[in-house]
Specification:
The structure holds two protein chains of two kinds. Chain A is built from 18 helices and 16 strands. Chain A is α/β, with parallel strands linked by helices. Chain A folds into four domains: 131 residues, Response regulator (Rossmann fold, 3-Layer(aba) Sandwich); 164 residues, 3-Layer(aba) Sandwich (Rossmann fold), CATH 3.40.50; 79 residues, Helicase, Ruva Protein, domain 3 (Orthogonal Bundle); 53 residues, Homeodomain-like (Arc Repressor Mutant, subunit A, Orthogonal Bundle). In chain A, the strands form five sheets. Chain A has a five-stranded parallel β-sheet, with helices on both faces. In chain A, α1 links the parallel β1 and β2. Chain B has five helices and eight strands; from the N terminus they run βαβββαββββααα. Chain B is globular, with a radius of gyration of 15 Å. Chain B has one domain: 3-Layer(aba) Sandwich (Collagenase (Catalytic Domain)), CATH 3.40.390. By secondary structure, chain B is an alpha/beta fold. Classes of the chains: A alpha/beta, B alpha/beta. At the A-B interface, α1 and α5 of A face loops of B.
């Protein structure tokens, strides 16, 4: 069992320390003890604990003083005061000094268990908040855009130059190069960073659905419009609107959207009253829009409007020196997320990764590393953990049809993921419903455990 | 897998009903696949009684069981009718050291219902067997389990005990098998 709370019991009575330690250990928690405040502070500085049980009455520095010192140095540590000699005054003083709870010895077993559950939940929420804060404040600068190559350094510089303004940006690059990450980085470095970043994948909607998604609709605007729905244009007010796969927008929608960009006004479907909105537009595409203009499927005026500044995201094969760095970044993330003890990548596996052409770019590399962490049995990723043993040669003889290749691949992934449907679907890049349909279609059966 | 050479000793401490002892012994043998033997009564060790609380401290009892464990027993479990506590808790139904070789269970609170009226023998047997299997599981290094139905999940109140079935979830079964392998009788 993985301990979610690292606990220290601080009490001058050995029997209490050992009793509480033994009880907590049966719940799978890691527990340490200290017999006085001095030892507790030393251990806290050295080890770090999420939760402290502190006896109020101790020789030398008492529990309330220890609580104050802990809260000064490490405010996130949860402290529960315990005492055999309860008094309202000491309880009030402890709670004012930041204690999360106050318990009288001996405890009712049910109360103690409920308290631990509550504190574990509090800790989870605190961790989640910190993670979100860090991801917003810190890593959001360039998000997961990683690279030491000259191409990426130029890209970072361009992002920094472009971010402070309000001009429309068009990001072009192959699938999986991280165009949305570039858009998020621009938003995070812009004056609009405290307002929403609203992303719309234009390729994922039919024309009418995209219209309703962008503009919103009033209740009863069309059959099935049971509720008023705000559109993404409205939601992005003050922030950044990111139109991914902008090359997929129909010519009619291009006209409608051009009007919004020129007038900064739009109508919700079913409501003649115009609404104003203010957003910065960032678009992205993997298509050659100039060719689309030649073929008359993309409007030139719309193109000029969305493409004041162009940012080109290089494909991974043009920055091979970043592959090792990226692979280790993904390895660190997934070994932690999947709680697997995979600490490195063998030289042979790294050679294969570096030689491969990566048609699916960084996203493909991420999927390959995640898969390797899932199926890997050793501390290092080895060639056998990669879907390709050689950069160009598939691992198994190619099956006769596309259907057979799909069947074999899904079967392999289900086995690798121990029939965890959510994880298999995620690695395959399809949703769970689709995976269930495929399982049924190919007649796969989960082996009895 | 039944180990012929090693047994689990069931040790009555002070007064303990013979039928309860037999039920506990049968269940431990069935669930751990280790032969059990019910021993003759021993007195509750001196020093276990706490006059302030009017209850018996589990720790001196477990210590005494550990010392008195017969050589051919790999584990020993004391069974008593007195009310037990550990210093930080107001009461316990039983206690064991994680990975130790001694445990103790009390039928004191198991014999009564919510309204303090005695429960049927059948209910008492069921509760005693569950607590004994749970505490014995701790001696095989099984921590509390998060699966509610598993016998190794925590049950601080009587109603929780009655909701359980005597069942090891697949994780606890695996951990138990690992522990058997470590002990060399898998």
């Amino acid at each position: 069992m993985v301990s979610e709370l690292n606990i220290m019991v601080v009490d001058d009575e050995l029997i209490v320390r050992e009793s509480l330690k033994g009880w907590l250990e049966k719940f799978g928690y890691g527990v340490d003890t200290a017999e006085d405040a001095r030892e507790a502070l030393e251990k806290l500085e050295r080890e770090g604990y999420a939760l402290l049980f502190v006896d109020i009455k101790m020789p030398g520095m008492d529990g309330v003083e220890l609580l104050k010192r802990v809260k000064e140095d490490q405010p996130d540590v949860i402290v529960v005061m315990i005492t055999a000699h309860g008094s309202i005054e000491s309880a009030i003083e402890a709670m004012k000094a930041g204690a999360s709870d106050y318990l009288m010895k001996p405890f009712d077993p049910e109360d103690l268990e409920l308290l631990i559950e509550k504190l574990a939940q509090t800790k989870r929420l605190m961790d989640e908040n910190r993670r979100l804060r860090e991801s917003y404040e810190g890593s959001s600068r360039f998000q997961d855009l990683i690279g030491q190559s000259g191409a990426m350094q130029k890209l970072f510089q361009l992002i920094e130059d472009v971010a402070p303004g309000d001009t429309a940006v068009l990001i072009v690059g192959e699938t999986g190069t991280g165009k949305e990450l570039v858009a998020k980085a621009i938003h995070a470095l812009s004056p609009r960073r405290y307002a929403p970043f609203v992303a719309v994948n234009c390729g994922a909607f039919t024309e009418t659905l995209l219209e309703s998604t962008l503009f919103g609709h009033e209740k009863g605007a069309f059959t099935g419009a049971h509720h008023l729905q705000k559109g993404r244009l409205e939601m992005a007010n003050g922030g950044t609107l990111f139109l991914d796969e902008v090359g997929e927008i129909s010519p009619k929608m291009q006209v409608d959207f051009l009007r919004v960009l020129e007038e900064k006004k739009f109508h919700r479907l079913g409501n003649p009253k115009p609404m104003t909105t203010d957003f910065r537009l960032i678009s992205a595409t993997h298509r050659d829009l100039e060719e689309a203009i030649q073929k008359r499927v993309f409007r030139q005026d719309f193109y000029y409007r969305i493409n004041v500044i162009t940012i080109v995201v290089p494909p991974l094969r043009e920055r091979k020196e970043d592959i090792e760095l990226l692979a280790h970044q993904f390895l660190g993330r997934y070994s932690q997320e999947l709680n697997k003890n995979v600490a490195g990548i063998s030289k042979e596996a790294l050679d294969i990764l570096t030689r491969y052409e990566w048609p699916g770019n960084v996203r493909e590399l991420e999927n390959v590393i995640e898969r390797a962490v899932v199926i890997g049995k050793k501390r290092k990723i080895n060639p056998a953990d990669l879907p390709f043993q050689d950069a160009r040669i598939p691992r198994r003889p190619i099956a006769g049809s596309l259907g057979e290749v799909e069947k074999d691949h899904i079967s392999d992934m289900l086995t690798a993921c121990d029939w965890n449907i959510a994880r298999t679907a995620s690695l395959l890049g399809i949703n769970r419903t689709t995976l269930y349909k495929k399982i049924k279609k190919y007649g796969f059966k989960q082996p009895a455990s | 897998m039944t180990s012929e050479k090693k047994i689990i000793a069931v040790q009555p401490l002070g007064r303990a009903r013979r039928d309860v002892l037999e039920v506990i012994a049968a269940n431990l043998q069935a669930f751990f696949q280790i032969r059990t033997e019910v021993f003759l009564d021993q007195p509750i060790p001196d020093g276990a009684y706490n006059s302030q609380r009017g209850q018996y401290n589990c720790y001196p009892i477990i210590e005494s069981l550990r010392i008195s464990k017969p050589h051919h027993a790999i584990k020993i479990i004391g069974v008593t009718e007195v009310d037990l506590f550990i210093p930080i808790l107001t009461y316990v139904f039983g206690e064991a050291e994680l990975g130790g070789n001694a445990a103790v269970v009390s039928t004191y609170r198991l014999a009564r219902g919510k309204d303090r009226e005695p429960v049927s023998s059948r209910r008492l047997f069921e509760r005693a067997a569950k607590i004994a299997v749970h505490e014995m599981g701790h001696t095989f290094r099984l921590p509390h389990c998060k699966e509610d139905r598993c016998i190794m999940s925590s049950f601080p109140v009587l109603s929780h005990i009655d909701e359980k079935t005597i069942y090891f979830c697949r994780y606890c079964t695996t951990f138990l098998r690992d522990e058997y392998e470590k002990l060399g009788f898998a």
